[in-house]
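Subgroup meeting minutes
Present: P.N., E.W., G.H.
Scribe: E.W.

1. P.N. recapped why we're keeping a running log of single-chain structure predictions: easier to compare across weeks, and new members can see raw inputs and outputs side by side.
2. G.H. added today's entry (191 aa).
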Amino acid sequence: MRQLSRSLLPLIALVLTGCQSLASPDPLARNVEATPAPCTWSRSDQASQDLWLRAAVESLEARRYVIRHTDAQLGVVSAERSARQPGLGAVDRPLLGGSSVWGSVGRRSGFSVGFGTGFGGGFGGGYADDPIEIERLSVIIEDQQVSITRDASIVDAGGYVVDSRPQNRSDFCRELSASIESRVRALESQQ
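Output recorded in log:
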């Protein structure tokens, strides 16, 4: 018996090592992309940081973002917007939901014994509410450059995050940077 267990030990170690090497990589590190070049651009003008912050706020509000935080010392504007995702929540709920079974046993003085059971449940069905996409964005204005970071999360009706990922896209950054720069020029001409 000892001889058999000693011969199986290397085989078990080999199998367990093989299983460990097949483990999936970190799921949070998946699909991580570098920030595209258009999301960071040089700032070579003489406009003040406050003027750039004002232009960024105006550009974001024009795109229906809600400004959540602005820090003039750090040169940061944080904003978000949300939108329903119709169809993503169209998961059919069961006709009978929340069912339960209960019972009790009791003994009274003397010789009588009681027993009861019951069945309860909900009735309804239908579709769950649509999840909401929450898009968060920050514009960072430094002395020499401006950066944009953006991410989005899908949150279901129960408040659980279904999906979350960066949304730094070149075309979006080009449009927003052009809008901010044109507003900076317009604000400079008003002074």
